[in-house]
Write a structure and sequence with these properties.
single chain; 495 residues; mainly alpha; Arp2/3 complex 21 kDa subunit ARPC3; Hypothetical protein af1432; 2 domains
């Protein structure tokens, strides 16, 4: 949530080069806010205060008893989140998102109850409140933003608190709330278009309508004397139930972009929207660095397939792969895939200068990504896809030149001190190493695609051996130490 401060700080520095910029280092104050236990306590206290306000300002009997029960539910909710979703619990912004969205749903529920009880709209009777409560709001939002586990979590606990707002215990409301919440989560498992949200909302509305029919919330219906039925009332109740899901999903679709920006979350919907190959940077790449463009497309296919095989985010991998080498646009002719082989520009440069140009494409990529307002996750992967790995070819060439210089120096009776030493640091990327599964997968796909182009007469056996050797090399160089890929997942990726 606080990461927009980090972007503004970098831009204000004028996009100057340097290791601090290149690393896109998080602001220390922002990090303290994000992981502060006091901020977490403040968020939970605010949620408890919100519950108290909703329970004590209504016309409910025994509000104190209900508030104590609500606090017990809150204790269970916090404990469950701490045990099963530690990454969410550790981050203040995620905690604020989860409990903030649930509190918004509860406030909307209370508003519906007040409107129905006060008779503000004559056609809305008190018993109709159960048909227009937005049961699926929090499950929809959290399922799309944070995943199905968070959606199920919201469906369970927000339904329990909603039941308290209605007053007396009613198993009908409990079942209806859980059924619609679980349906919302199920229908948003693979949402990649905003239009699918409306379809999910329609599905939620149908489930609510069926629950209402089953438990008598719609009606009464006389199956034996149909003429006695109030068909206008039945039509209104049915429209409210189905419309509930559709309207809720429409509202969710409208606020998702704001929540994504505010909490620095990119959903599959936004990733697919960002995958448009007509992006200005990608269009430039097709003209100025066609080899790099083709390389990026192949890396995207490899990374997406590998990510889906190990349960990582394949859509994220595809989109980030498109942009991981945009820094090569600054000096495209110095990279192998863009050379015409009539003349190698590195032949006229010292190895240290060649390595500097190669390594600088990471920094240049961050600069371009910031200027074009790309997602911070794309920027992270641009920085991390080479980790702190070694530009071995130019290092070896520099060492060879040093040995040749020493041999010539002996003939000319020069001292060894007159010949500069070769520093490994000049031939290593600045890092950081990959921090996530997706970043590591793109790093491996990038390395494999580049190396496979140098194979003579490639066969499946040669490619398999190459992949195995390259992954072993990355492990030996400790490039995968900071991500959460397991050895079993690495074997799956290699296959």
């Amino acid at each position: 949530m606080f990461d927009f401060l980090k972007r503004n700080t970098l831009v204000k520095r004028g996009l100057a080069s340097g290791k601090t910029r290149r690393r896109y280092a998080p602001n220390e104050f922002v990090q303290r806010l994000e992981f502060s236990p006091y901020i977490k306590g403040l968020i939970l206290a605010a949620f408890a205060a919100g519950l108290a306000l909703l329970l004590f300002t209504g016309d409910l009997p025994e509000p104190t008893k209900n508030f104590v029960i609500a606090l017990l539910f809150l204790g269970a909710a916090v404990t469950q989140l701490w045990i099963n979703q530690p990454r969410t619990f550790d981050r203040s912004s995620r905690l604020l998102l989860v409990f903030g969205i649930m509190l918004v749903q509860l406030a909307a529920t209370e508003l519906v109850l007040v409107v129905c009880r006060n008779g503000t709209f004559p056609f809305l009777k008190t018993e109709m409140a159960a048909l227009i409560v937005p049961y699926a709001f929090a499950p929809l939002v959290l399922s799309v933003l944070l995943g199905r586990n968070h959606g199920l979590y919201a469906a369970i606990f927000v339904t329990l608190w909603t039941r308290l707002l209605f007053g007396a215990f009613d198993a009908t409301l409990l079942v209806a709330g859980l059924a619609t919440g679980f349906t919302a989560v199920y229908l948003t498992l693979q949402v990649r278009k905003r239009s699918r949200l409306i379809r999910a909302g329609f599905g939620v509305g149908i489930v609510l309508w069926l629950m209402a029919l089953m438990f008598g919330l719609i009606g009464p219906i006389d199956l034996f004397t149909p003429r006695a039925n109030d068909w206008r009332l039945l039509a209104l109740q049915s429209a409210l139930a189905v419309g509930n899901g559709i309207v809720t999903a429409t509202i969710v679709g409208g606020i998702l972009p704001m929540l994504e920006h505010l909490f620095r979350i990119t959903t599959d919907i936004s990733w697919l929207e960002a995958s448009d190959l007509n992006h200005p940077l990608l269009r430039r790449m097709t003209i100025e660095a066609p080899g790099t463009y083709h390389h990026s497309l192949v890396v995207a296919n490899l990374a997406e397939a590998a990510a889906e095989a190990v349960g990582a985010n394949g859509t994220l991998c595809r989109v980030c792969s498109y942009f991981h080498d945009v820094g090569k646009l600054v000096k495209p002719d110095y990279f192998t895939e863009n050379m015409n082989f009539e003349r190698n520009p590195h032949d006229d440069l010292a190895p240290t200068m060649s390595a500097l140009i190669i390594i600088a494409h990471v920094k240049e990529g961050v600069d371009l990504a910031l200027k074009h307002n790309l997602s911070s996750q794309i920027i992270d992967i641009i920085q991390e896809h080479h980790g702190t790995s070694f530009v071995y070819y130019f290092y070896k060439r520099s060492v060879q030149q040093q040995e040749d210089a020493r041999a010539g120096g002996k003939i000319m009776k020069m001292r060894d001190d007159d010949i500069p030493e070769v520093s490994e640091e000049n031939f290593r990327y600045a890092g950081p190493k990959p921090q996530t599964k997706e970043s590591a997968i793109i790093s491996l796909a990038d390395m494999v695609e580049s190396a496979s182009r140098s194979l003579e007469k490639p066969t499946p056996q040669k490619i398999e051996q190459l992949v195995t050797d390259l992954i072993a090399q990355r492990i030996a160089d400790k490039q995968l130490d900071e991500c959460d890929l397991t050895l079993a997942e690495l074997r799956t990726i290699a296959e």
